[in-house]
Every structure is written in structure tokens, then in C-alpha cells.
Specification:
The complex is a heterodimer. Chain A is an alpha/beta fold. Chain A contains 18 helices and 14 strands. By secondary structure, chain B is of the alpha/beta class. Chain B folds into three domains: 32-169, Rossmann fold, CATH 3.40.50; 177-218 and 229-300, Nitrogenase molybdenum iron protein domain (Rossmann fold, 3-Layer(aba) Sandwich); 305-460, Rossmann fold (3-Layer(aba) Sandwich). Chain B has 19 helices and 14 strands. The chains are: A alpha/beta, B alpha/beta.
Chain lengths: 450, 468
């Protein structure tokens, strides 16, 4: 196993709990040549804004960035479907030499005329700044001419990490905020931040809050609409999931509009219940909310526990490796897996910060390998060393798991199955059960030797 | 609201596609570095390295993995803001070092990106400088392909990487090996490449296939951990390309352009070049086998005559299902040309032939392949996106659409059956195993096309026939 090498410069981004003093490095640009599983700034922006279904998303650059992000996510919309189109200025050599502003302007005018979006986001890709396009100026001009907000997203791929892309997206959203009518918003009201409605998750979560008696003003950005974003400043509280992606916006809203925020996660029964109770506690002036929340949680938990217990009987003692984008999701998954009788032996994220990894260290059992910005070789090495039975990750991690004879659960945005909330926990458990208990593993040579 | 509550209005049909002159909508092409990465994945022990931003490699990896369902490690030199200002030399060197340390590769294939090309990085010089500082034995050969995504499509990246690999590795001709052949198959499936290799071997020929990702991107389970999956053409074999009796280059549009690796070998070492379209259908496969017979001096093996016989028998059995049927085709230009070739042999009229490719060869190529009487009803779209393709298909109302997964939204909106071929297959199993070439490939295609039409008739009938 030790035949799989770890690069010297990467050693400080890997830690095995209980073995040495905890001195993890993170929040760094990926190491050249290391084959990071991360994407780029553009990816971060695209992830956050993608679900806004009635907006035009125009990628300004050569074709790749738009082509690779065409209709790839499971973010559902209850109406408009414009987010599922891929629009690009498809810059050619001529524009690289003479500039792409003219093409950008024309593309915006044509597309806005054709699709009548409520707003347009223009994503800058790597070469846009270098060829000297003034994207903001083009956006201002089109805003004037077409009467809809046209917002530049400063998402040049090389200008930082995926996190900087989140921030660029939040900056664009922040420009929309504060422009909508907030008169009909109740005092007991929230925005759900960092929830992208994968497989309809935002609908489930919104439903929980509504049954608690809490008005949901805006989900940012799942099943998103421009008009909802514009009036999000009218909510009394921001509930932020996926800490990495939208805490930036929550901070900005706190500063400008005085809206407090709390963190939440909807993965696993424990964290979902906690999120709902935390919101109820925030509105403790109305004790009926607390009461309704208790009833809701009780009913939901009662509905899913019997099947979860049956599934647990088959999964008890199995080991899991978790490597996903955000660290917050890792915390929830560790707890959710424990509920299924499973132990996490490898835990990592692409974008965790120092606080996240400290939390992770405290949360994990001794002997767990914690990884920041890992690569396929490292992941393979620790899956083998720690004898994992299951890998939770995204599409890029899937073949690693399968070649090593390990079950796999896709917990990224490409998935089509809702895994959040109480009902989602059941889907999650079923999916893990399906993959881990498959009889095919008995034929995998790697595994049977192992 | 649950997923099941989604009303028909809320589906893809809600989008009214409108073509645009300035924007590309739902591209029918990918960027050049993807094609180059694919080529480098077809060399034994090679690691592709993209000189650009981290997203380039990650997006391309995800796209390829979703189709091939295999590990696809592609490194990146990972530009930061400093790199974009001061140039990518330092990052490239670091990336090369780290790849060597982690992977111990037999070759590193460097493909540039729009970013490194736009800032004007001199990659050949960086590589030269790097090699100069390293002991000769300790570093693998490094191939550089210039693949800015603002030039051409993934196919241009593909062909440039093939040519650059041969240019870098082929050493002086030492002797002519009469049984050695260079095969440049173009962008086909792993199953296609395997089949081409079988056919070549049946003539007693030793083929250097570039690229050969038939195993690296469609391998079995591992006995032990593989940093770089097994398979691919060995570097030493590519080095001997000049010794071959002939090169065979597949793909109509590439043949017309005359810029491929076969041309290079012809000019540099006098290796005879045969240029053919993809061997799809009867005549194209006949021509391909005849070329192999000519090079090897051997008759066409009985095995292929049997396959040809079974194919013809199948085509006769099913001819009424397909004759006069109208189809829309899209994908890479060479694939569209190859498909059109086969379809005309069975009476299917290609009424829309579209590609995002920009070789400017497609119209001419198709006019030469499709009977003149059918030209009037045939719309050829070059450098097209799916907005243009869908508009043309909506007007033509064909019976069938033939292309990759990205045409599914169009097929669904227009309610026309889609037969999946080529790359990418992101919504079905078996993309790697789709066979398009040879008599066997034609038979597989024919069955799938005929069955799609039969299925439509069966499902569309209220009677519910169980016997068709």
C-alpha cells in the first residue's frame, strides 16, 4: 500500500487522528501536478448561481467552460428551465486578438430578446481579463437597453480557488438584493441559503419550515427566481447551509440589512432536526412554532426510523470514506453514517478551512485519515489502507471506489436523488445499502485478496 | 412539491429554442484540450498535463469519467494570479516534477489551454529548459500539443496531439518492417479500437495504434492498485513509426485536410499513407480490409467474409424497417460522414447532418458520399450548436435522430427516437462498448436503428402487438 507515494508538499494537508500533533494546512492553491479533485473559481460561481431558473447564464470565454457545465446538475425548477441551457460567447482567435466585448454585447441582446430572462449573469472565464474586455461596462449598457439586471460575475478560473468563485457569485446576488418588494413578508420569516434543490431537496425543506409556521422568503438559490432573490433582504433570519458557498452572502446581508444568520445542515436526521429546532429557537417569542416543530420532527422521525433500523442491521460495522466539496457536509455525513452503524475512516474536503478541520478532528474516531484537497492517489491509498467498504463523493471519485471494489454513493450536485431532510436520509440509507450489499463485490479480485 | 408532481409544462419542452448569431447555445463540440487528453490517455504509462487553470483538468476529467466510467487522472499546472502575470514556466516545471514523483510515468503529454496560450507562454522552451536540468535517464519523454480552446474543437486538439506525439517520438527510420503498420484511428470508442486491432492482427500485421485507449479507458477490474491503468501504445512502438510499411489514417475530413500524423510520417520518412473514412458500413469496411490486404500482401481472411455475409443477411432481413426512413445525424464530422456512408447503403436518408466541428470539409465530404438525388433534402450544418441543429431537425421532422447523449433534450422536445452513438454517452451504460466500425459494428448499429423504429411502431400502436 505504501507503494502509493504522497508528495512531500502535500504531507501537511493530511492528518491521521490520534497519531501526531494536529497541524493541518489548508485554504491553499492546489499544488501543480498533484491532480487535485477541485475545480476552479468559475466552477464555484457556476455552482451557486446555476439553479436560478429564470435568469440567463452566459459564459464569456472559449467553449469549454460552458460545454462542461451544460445541464449537469440535479437542481430542479418548478417552472422556468432556462438554467438548463448552456450559453457561451464561444470566443475565437479573432476575439482573443481584437477583444470580445462586441460579441458579448450582441450575444446578450440576442439571447435576452429570445428568452426574455428576468436577469442575466455574465461569467468571466480565464482569458477575459487578459484580453482586456470590460465586462462590467457591457453589462451596464445592456442593463440600460434591456431593462433587466445584467450582472458580471468575476469568475476567472485562475484568480483563486473555488471558494473565491462562491464569493464572486455572492457579490452578484448581493447586487440584486434590496430591489424587490418586501411588504408582504411576515416577521417570522427566513431565507434558506446554500440549498440548491438537488432532486427537490429545497421543496422538502421549505415544506418543513412552512409547517412550522415560518415563512420562507427566498431559497438561495434552489428553484431560484430573480424576483425572490431581489426581496430576500426582507427576511428576519438567514439559515445558511453549505457553509463555504454562501456564508459570504449571509455576512454581507448581516452588515447591510442587519439580518442575523445561523448555520444549518439538512443531511441526516440529527442535523435536520437541529436545524429546524435552531430556527424555532430563534423565533422563541412564538411558542407555537417550537411546539409545531416538535410535532413535525416527531412525525418525520417516526416515519423513517423503522426502515433505517432494518438497513442498519445490514450495514453495522462497515467502514466509509467521505471526500466531498465542503467540510460542513462531511460533519453531517459522519453523523448520518453513525446512525446507520457505520464508521468513517477517511474524511476530507476540497475547500475546508482551519476551523472545519479542527471540528473534523474532534468529530472523528481515532485513526481516521483527514484530507484537504486530496488527489486520486491519496484517496486510493487511504481507501485501501483503511479498508473502506463505501466511498461517498462525486463523479470523479466514483471510478476510484469501483476499481478498488468499494461501494459508492454520489453526494455531489450531479445526483438526481434528494438526500436531505428526513425523507432524504431514507434515500441515503437505501442507496448505501444498495451499493454496499451488492453481490458483485464477491467477484472483485482486489477486494477478495484484501 | 415532490419530483413526481412536476407537470409537463415544467419539463424541457418549456424551452423554446431560438438560434442566435453571436452566442453558442448547447454546443455540439468540446474544447481542444479534451481531445488532446484523450490521445495521451491512449499511450502506455502516460499522464496528460493541462497547462492552465485547475478547472480545465477537473471539468475534462468529469466529462470523460462520466462516459468511460474509468479513472481518468489528468494533471494540471494550476495557474494562479501570479502565474498569469509572470508566466507559467515555474508551475509547469513543478507540475512535471510532481507528476514524475507521484506517477513515475512513461510519458507526459502537455496540452496547453486558452489561458496559457493567451498570455503567450513558450511551452516548448519551458520543456527544453526543464529537460536540460534533469539527468537524461530520470525523466520520461514529454510531448507538447498546442491546444487553445479558442481554435477549433476537441477534434482539433485530438489530431494535434496525435501529430505532436509522432513528431516528438518517432526516431530516424532504421529499417522497413514490412509487417508493421501505423494506425491513426481518430476518435472512436474503445470497442472500435479493439475491433480495428483484431482486424489488423488477422492480416499478420503489427499495428502501432495511436491513440489506443481501448484498455486504459475500458479496462477490467484491478488485481492490484494501478497508478496508471494498464494498456495503451508503448512509447517504443511510437518511436518505430518511421519503420512501418504504411500508415492508415481514418476519418474523411482529416484525410481531406492532409495535416495528420500520416502526412508527417510520409513527408519525413517516406512511409506510405492510406487515408480512408471511418470503416462504417459495407463499402467503407471493404475498403479498409482491402487496404490491410494490400499492405500485408495477404488475402482477406475467411472470418471477415463470414462477418460480411451475416451483415448482408441481416440487412436483407430488416430492409423494410429502414428503407426510405429519414434521419438526423450529429456529432464529430468524421463520425457523421461515416454514419451517412452506412445509412445510404440501407436506404436511410440523412436529412440533417450536423457537427460543431469547423474543418469546413463536412459539406464537400457528404456530397461525395450521399447519392446526388438526396442532396436537395439534406441540410448540412457545420460549426453548428444544438440551437441550430434543433431548428433544422424541427423543420425536417426526421423519423430518427442518431447522435450522442447531448441531443437527448432535442429528441425529447421533438418526440423523435434517439439512437445513441459516439461520444459522450452520459445517460446510458456501455458508451465505451458501442461498436461502430467493421461489419460487426454495422450490424450492431443496424440492429439498434431498426429496433428503435420497431419499438416506436409497437409502442405507438394501441393494439399492443407482441409479434412484429
Amino acid at each position: 500500500m505504501s507503494s502509493i507515494p504522497i508528495l512531500k508538499q502535500r504531507e501537511r494537508q493530511i492528518h491521521e487522528t490520534g497519531t501526531a500533533p494536529f497541524e493541518m494546512t489548508c485554504d491553499q492553491q492546489s499544488l501543480a501536478g498533484s491532480v487535485s479533485q477541485r475545480a476552479c473559481v468559475f466552477c464555484g460561481s457556476r455552482v451557486v448561481l446555476y439553479p436560478i431558473a429564470d435568469a440567463l447564464h452566459l459564459v464569456h470565454g472559449p467553449i469549454g467552460c460552458a460545454a462542461y457545465t451544460w445541464d449537469i446538475r440535479g437542481a430542479l425548477s418548478s417552472g422556468a428551465q432556462l438554467h438548463r441551457m448552456s450559453f457561451s460567447t464561444d470566443l475565437r482567435e479573432t476575439e482573443v486578438i481584437f477583444g470580445g466585448e462586441k460579441k458579448l454585447y450582441q450575444a446578450l441582446i440576442e439571447l435576452i430578446d429570445a428568452y426574455a430572462p428576468q436577469a442575466a449573469f455574465v461569467y468571466s472565464t480565464c482569458i477575459v481579463g487578459i484580453i482586456g474586455d470590460d465586462v462590467a461596462a457591457v453589462c451596464r449598457r445592456v442593463t440600460r437597453e434591456k431593462g433587466i439586471p445584467v450582472l458580471p460575475v468575476h469568475s476567472e478560473g485562475f484568480k483563486g480557488t473555488k471558494k473565491d468563485g462562491y464569493k464572486a457569485a455572492c457579490d452578484a446576488l448581493f447586487q440584486l438584493l434590496g430591489t424587490g418588494d418586501t411588504r408582504d413578508i411576515a416577521p417570522v420569516s427566513i431565507n434558506i441559503l446554500g440549498e440548491f434543490n438537488i432532486g427537490g431537496e429545497a421543496w422538502m425543506i421549505r415544506d418543513y419550515y412552512q409547517r412550522m409556521g415560518v415563512q420562507v422568503v427566498s431559497v438561495l438559490t434552489g428553484d431560484g427566481r430573480v424576483a425572490d432573490v431581489c426581496r430576500a433582504h426582507g427576511a428576519a433570519l438567514n439559515v445558511v447551509q453549505c457553509s463555504g458557498a454562501m456564508t459570504f452572502l449571509a455576512e454581507m446581508m448581516k452588515e447591510k440589512y442587519g439580518i442575523p444568520y445561523i448555520r444549518a445542515s439538512y443531511f441526516g436526521i440529527e442535523d435536520t432536526a437541529k436545524a429546524l429546532y435552531d430556527v424555532a429557537a430563534h423565533f422563541s417569542k412564538d411558542p407555537a412554532i417550537q411546539k409545531r416543530t416538535e410535532e413535525l420532527v416527531r412525525a418525520q422521525v417516526t416515519a423513517v426510523v423503522p426502515e433505517l433500523q432494518r438497513i442498519r442491521a445490514d450495514l453495522e460495522g462497515k467502514r466509509a470514506a467521505v471526500y466531498v466539496g465542503g467540510a460542513f457536509k462531511v460533519f453531517s455525513l459522519i453523523k448520518a453514517l453513525r446512525q446507520l452503524g457505520m464508521q468513517v475512516v477517511v474524511a476530507g474536503s476540497q475547500t475546508g478551512n482551519a476551523d472545519d478541520y479542527a471540528t473534523l478532528r474532534d468529530l472523528c474516531d481515532p485513526g481516521t485519515v483527514i484530507l484537504d484537497d486530496a488527489n486520486p492517489l491519496e484517496l486510493s491509498r487511504f481507501v485501501i489502507e483503511k479498508r473502506a467498504d463505501l466511498f461517498i463523493g462525486g463523479v470523479k471519485e466514483r471510478p476510484i471506489a469501483y476499481k478498488l471494489g468499494v461501494g459508492f454513493c454520489d453526494h455531489n450536485h450531479e445526483r438526481k436523488t434528494p438526500l436531505a431532510g428526513f425523507e432524504g436520509m431514507l434515500h441515503f440509507a437505501r442507496e448505501i445499502h444498495t451499493t454496499v450489499t451488492s453481490p458483485v463485490w464477491q467477484f472483485v479480485p482486489f477486494r477478495s485478496e484484501g | 412539491m415532490a419530483t413526481s408532481d412536476l407537470k409537463a409544462d415544467y419539463t424541457l419542452k418549456q424551452i423554446q429554442i431560438t438560434p442566435s448569431a453571436s452566442a453558442t447555445q448547447n454546443a455540439c463540440k468540446l474544447c481542444a484540450p479534451l481531445g488532446a487528453s484523450l490521445v495521451f490517455k491512449g499511450i502506455r504509462g502516460a499522464v496528460p498535463l493541462l497547462h492552465g487553470s485547475q478547472g480545465c483538468s477537473t471539468y475534462i476529467r468529469r466529462y470523460l469519467i462520466s462516459h468511460y466510467k474509468e479513472p481518468v487522472d489528468i494533471a494540471c499546472s494550476n495557474f494562479g494570479e501570479q502565474t498569469a502575470v509572470f508566466g507559467g514556466g515555474v508551475n509547469l516545471k513543478l507540475a512535471l516534477e510532481n507528476i514524475c514523483r507521484q506517477y513515475d510515468p512513461a510519458l507526459i503529454g502537455v496540452a496547453t489551454t486558452c489561458l496559457s496560450e493567451t498570455i503567450g507562454d513558450d511551452v516548448p522552451m519551458f520543456i527544453k529548459q526543464y529537460l536540460a536540468t534533469q539527468p537524461e535517464e530520470s525523466v520520461p519523454p514529454i510531448v507538447h500539443a498546442s491546444t487553445p480552446s479558442y481554435q477549433g474543437s476537441h477534434m482539433d486538439g485530438f489530431h494535434r496531439a496525435v501529430r505532436a506525439t509522432v513528431e516528438t517520438l518517432a526516431r530516424e527510420r532504421t529499417a522497413t518492417e514490412p509487417a508493421r503498420v501505423n494506425l491513426f484511428p481518430g476518435m472512436l470508442s474503445p470497442a472500435d479500437i479493439r475491433h480495428l486491432k483484431e482486424m489488423t492482427a488477422a492480416f499478420g500485421l503489427t499495428a502501432m495504434v495511436l491513440p489506443d485507449y481501448s484498455q486504459t479507458l475500458d479496462g477490467g477490474l484491478w488485481e492490484s492498485y494501478q497508478r496508471i491503468p494498464g494498456g495503451g501504445t508503448p512509447v517504443e512502438e511510437i518511436a518505430k513509426a518511421g519503420d512501418a510499411a504504411a500508415s492508415v489514417e481514418l476519418g474523411h475530413t482529416l484525410a481531406r485536410a492532409g495535416e495528420g500524423a500520416a502526412t508527417l510520417l510520409e513527408q519525413r520518412f517516406g512511409v506510405r499513407a492510406a487515408r480512408l473514412g471511418f470503416p462504417m458500413g459495407i463499402r467503407a469496411t471493404d475498403a479498409w480490409l482491402q487496404v490491410l490486404a494490400d499492405i500485408s500482401g495477404r488475402p482477406i481472411p475467411e472470418l471477415f467474409k463470414e462477418q460480411r455475409g451475416r451483415l448482408l443477411d441481416t440487412l436483407v432481413d430488416g430492409h423494410k424497417h429502414v428503407n426510405t426512413v429519414r434521419a438526423a445525424l450529429y456529432g464529430e464530422e468524421d463520425l457523421v460522414a461515416g454514419l451517412a456512408c452506412f445509412l445510404t447503403e440501407i436506404g436511410i436518408h440523412p436529412v440533417v447532418c450536423a457537427s460543431g466541428g469547423q474543418s469546413r470539409q463536412l459539406t464537400k465530404t457528404l456530397q461525395a458520399l450521399v447519392p446526388a438525388a438526396w442532396h436537395e433534402e439534406m441540410t448540412v450544418l457545420e460549426a453548428a450548436d444544438f440551437a441550430a441543429i434543433e431548428t433544422a431537425v424541427a423543420t425536417a421532422r426526421p423519423d430518427l435522430i442518431i447522435g450522442h447523449s447531448k441531443g437527448y433534450a432535442m429528441a425529447r422536445r421533438l418526440d423523435i427516437p434517439l439512437v445513441r452513438v459516439g461520444f459522450p454517452i452520459h445517460d446510458r451504460m456501455g458508451g465505451s462498448r458501442l461498436l461502430h466500425v467493421g461489419y460487426e459494428g454495422a450490424m450492431a448499429l443496424f440492429d439498434r436503428i431498426a429496433n428503435a423504429l420497431i419499438e416506436q411502431r409497437q409502442d405507438g400502436s394501441e393494439v399492443g402487438y407482441t409479434y412484429m
